[in-house]
Predict the structure.
Amino acid sequence: PPNPVGQPVPNDRAGDVSVTLSNLSWGSSNDPDGDPVRYSIYLGAVGNPQFIATATATSYNLTSALGFATAYEWRVDAADDHGNVTPGPTWSFTSEVNDPPTPLISPTPGDGAYDQLTNLTLTWQGGEDPEDLFVEYLVYLAPVGGDMEFLGLTSQRSISGAMRGTLTHEIVYVWRVDARDSEGLLTTGSDWRFTTETNNPPSAPAEPTPADTQVDVAANASLIWGGCDDPESDPLEFEVRLSTTTPPTAVDTVQVATFTPAAALDYETTYYWQIVA
C-alpha cells in the first residue's frame, strides 16, 4: 500500500486558524510499487471527521468558511489503483475567535459641539472588523433626557441626522453608534452630544405691491412682497393682515409671497395691509 501522508497545513494542533482558510494541504504519499495515488480527505468536528472529497493533488480547496472558535480534526487517506488504502494520521486545529468590531471614534459633530445644523449629517470612524466580516451600524438619537430612539441602520459611516424629521433648534441631542458584524457580535458605542443652532427670525418683508400709499389700486389686485430670507434656510409661512382699520386684521396664512383676496375690495376705500413672516 502507499505510505501515509504527512506535513499537514495547517500544522497539527495549530491554533487561531483563519475562518477564511482557503485550502488544506499535505505532503505526497510515495507508493512502493510506483502506482498512482489518490487521496480521500476527511474534515469535521473533533471525534467526527467526515469524508468531503477525493483528490489526486496534495491539496484541497475548501468550499465554505470555517466556524469561529471551533476545534476541527482532519485526515487524508492514501489509496493506490489496486484498492490498497493507508489511513493517514488524524490532525487537529482550532479556528480563530470572532472578535467584535473596533470601538467607534471620531464623531462629527464632535462630542459637545455647538451651533449645529438641524439637517446635519452624522459621521464617525472605527467600527472595523478584525476578521474582515461585514459590519453594519445602528444609530440612535434623542434629546438629552429623552429615551434613545433608533435613527437608522447603515453599512456606511454616515447617516442623516434628519432621517426622521428635521431636528429642533437650540436643543441638546445625544447620539450613539453601535457596530454589529455579520455573526451578530456587537460593539456598543459611547454617547456623544451636540447642540443645534439658534433659530434666527427671517428678514422683514419688503418691496410691497401695491406700494405703500399707492392709489387707484384695482379692486381685484393681488398683494405681493419680497425680502423674507431665512438665515437657516427654514421654510417660511406668511400671515396676511388686511382691513380698513389699523392695525390690520389677520385674514389668511400662505406659504408663498403673494395673496389674492377671496372677494374684490371695495371701491374708493383705504386699506391697510401687513405681512408677518
Remarks:
- DSSP finds no helices and 23 strands in the chain.
